[in-house]
């Protein structure tokens, strides 16, 4: 409570807000600050006072997306349980669900999946949450998104699937190899080429990713 009062008092004195603010009330600004800090108790107190759960900052972010950026799990839980929209997009088309998937914030991802995450939603590159998760080698996140039912062979605006992105933008290391294994086991089309007609196997061989190339060849890649 003391922390909440301090935030409100600082705002009243004209102190700099922790996030860009556009036509926000004092309490909405405090909600963003609590989300940034991971202060679930302050969040619940503000919401109990009638503060809207999904106000927007100058970048179009909701408090839930701000909490997701910082991987503040308990803050995200408090907001989601109060009805925050897990699919609310900001100015660059990120949502709490998409961002949690892309960054491997598995606990928050689980919360979004349990509260209506739109598995077909896409980011500014036209990719599902699975594609950047595969690119970054977030093995458990990839496993969870596959289990949730995200389309395996969705093609983004760059012409890449999750399998292609795991190869083209990955480092070929153990995590990337595990991601490829998961995608192949889930039925990914190992011969689905990119927009220039280059196959996953050709990309793997060009980059010297011998272990991945062997996995693909074993799965019937050409």
UniProtKB/TrEMBL annotation:
Annotated membrane-spanning segments are none
Q: What SUPFAM superfamilies does the annotation carry?
A: Ankyrin repeat
Q: Where is the signal peptide?
A: 1-23
Q: Which domain of life is it from?
A: Bacteria
- One Pfam family linked to the record: Ank_2
Recorded hits in PANTHER family, A to Z, give:
NF-KAPPA-B INHIBITOR ALPHA (PTHR46680), NF-KAPPA-B INHIBITOR CACTUS (PTHR46680:SF3)
Q: What is this protein called?
A: Ankyrin repeat domain-containing protein
């Amino acid at each position: 409570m003391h922390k909440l009062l301090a935030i409100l008092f600082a705002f009243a004195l004209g102190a700099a807000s922790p996030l860009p603010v556009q036509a926000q009330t004092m309490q909405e600004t405090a909600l963003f600050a609590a989300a940034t800090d991971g202060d679930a108790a302050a969040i619940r107190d503000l919401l109990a006072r009638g503060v809207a759960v999904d106000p927007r900052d100058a970048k179009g972010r909701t408090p839930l997306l701000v909490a997701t950026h910082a991987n503040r799990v308990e803050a995200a839980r408090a907001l989601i349980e109060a009805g925050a929209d897990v699919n609310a997009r900001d100015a660059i088309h990120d949502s709490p669900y998409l961002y949690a998937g892309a960054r491997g914030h598995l606990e928050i991802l689980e919360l979004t999946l349990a509260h209506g995450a739109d598995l077909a939603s896409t980011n500014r590159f036209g990719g599902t949450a699975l594609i950047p998760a595969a690119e970054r080698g977030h093995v458990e996140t990839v496993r969870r998104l596959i289990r949730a039912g995200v389309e395996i062979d969705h093609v983004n605006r760059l012409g890449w699937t999750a399998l292609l992105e795991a190869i083209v933008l990955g480092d070929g290391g153990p995590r990337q190899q595990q991601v490829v294994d998961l995608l192949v086991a889930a039925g990914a089309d190992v011969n689905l080429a990119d927009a220039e007609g280059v196959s996953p196997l050709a990309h793997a061989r060009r980059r010297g990713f011998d272990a991945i190339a062997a996995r693909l060849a074993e799965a019937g890649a050409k």
